[in-house]
Amino acid sequence: MSLRNNGRLSRREMLKALSLCAAGSATLGPLLTGCRDAITTPEALERLGGVRRDRLDGKPRFLIVVGAAGGASIVDSFLAVRASEAGANASRLNTFADEQVQGVEGSPFRAVKVNSPRLGNIPQAVNTDQLPFVRKHKDSMLVATSVGTSVNHVIAQKRSITGNAAWRGRTLQECVALQYGAGFPIPNVNMAMGGYSERGTDHSLPSYCYGEVVSNASLWPLGLDGSKGLKDAPPRDVVELARRTRNTLDSQSVFGRTFENAPALQRWNEQRIVGQPSLEARELINRLNVLPDQPPSLPLSEYGLSSSPDGERLRALFPDYLTDPVQSQAALAFLLLKYRVSVTVTLGPSFNVAVGNTREQFIASPPLAFDFSHTEHRSGQAFMWSRVMGVVDKLIELLKAEPFDETSGESMWDRTLIYVATEFGRTRSRPTDAVEFSTGHDLNNGFLMLSPMIKGNTVLGGMDPLTGLTYGFDPRTGTPEPGKMTTNEPDIFSGILTALGVDTSGSGLPDASAFVRT
Q1: Is the pTM here over 0.70, yes or no?
Q2: d(C-alpha 302, C-alpha 212), whole Å
Q3: Where are the alpha helices (DSSP H) in 224-376?
Q4: How far apart are the first and last CA of the chain?
Q5: What is the pLDDT of residues 210-228, one digit of tens each?
Q6: How far is CA 45 from CA 55, 97, 179, 384, in A?
Q7: At what angle are helices 42-49 and 172-180 packed, to 10 degrees?
Q8: DSSP3 helix / strand / coil % (the chain, rounded to 5)
């Protein structure tokens, strides 16, 4: 939104901003409450993939997917290798000086601390210490080693959320939305990039399961009402009268009569007549709005709008929410879960450079995110892992402080799983004794999950320090299998769904009991 010279938004500018947001929300319809029809009957849901009737009234669980775009290397974080462990290969492998790899008491995880004077050609210090994060969250952390099937960014991103089409091509988010999202206005919200934002290939799912793509998390909530935010707009009852008249005229038009039985038109009418009022009744335009009421530059109150009741604390936690997309995404993700708008939310850095406002962090994200490793691996990985861990840590703290309901004593965090989809790994070689070097893409890597519902403080699989490569595990028992290098994308997919209580009967997915806390 542009500001005039006096720092105040004109009516035209405010209307333009709101209209752009509304246009960006034009695809909301398939996800709205009113367009479920008979497809949410127990029999219909069972036909779509084994959702048992006794789970239809169960309490929801929530999935947050963090897309670690560009290839987040697990050997630059929780499975780092010390030089002394790699023997004669140490100087030519991506190993660290022993003092840079910190052990974690009573845990299989490791934590890297790399100090670099600058990130590439940007004169900015990169001083990251992963130990506080691992110590704080180790009991709800699980790392599962992996071997993927693609090093193409978009393909690998999508396979990290479909398990390489492990269950009819559905994404994890779609499975969670199908299991828990039938009563939610927008069950599946996706703010990520590339393959992380793509829908699956199972076209038999109810349309509400598919992700609602959000391109600007800070402004998107302003498009969730058809008339609020318009200065001098008619009263709501007048707007409703106009809508009813419009609907009547549309249905009696030649077009409306000709195509009245067309599924697309029926879905569109359901969006406008049932879905849109349902959203508006929830006051989401204000509840999800992190922007402050800040006259004269941002006079929300003049337009009948207000900031979210949680806005002040979210702006304090995410001070660069207007310029750093990941911060604004994290703030919106929390609000979407808190206000029971969604059961699954996807976020993550893009390949675009992001510049923050705070003095401590001028560059919020380097170009290409984790793929900056093509230029400088160590500093790029250290910087981006710090960025991901920082956002995840704040989300966990917010969810821990938010009650799930008034009776069970559970927090939102007790019913949430965060999945850091690392895309793929990086090559392990480096020039002899190089401190900074470049890396390419590699199928071998691992994924990070955090939740009270998973088997915490656990590494499934293992690391061969002589090669820097991870090896596999038995997804049912968790037994490490040294030398196992076959792809296990379906195991990861199944493990996440199993931990979330999604009924996978009839899916053909492998038994992934090893992921679940017992």
Answers
A1: yes
A2: 30
A3: 236-252, 254-258, 263-270, 276-281, 284-287, 311-317, 325-338
A4: 50
A5: 999 999 999 999 999 999 9
A6: 11, 54, 9, 40
A7: 160
A8: 40, 15, 45
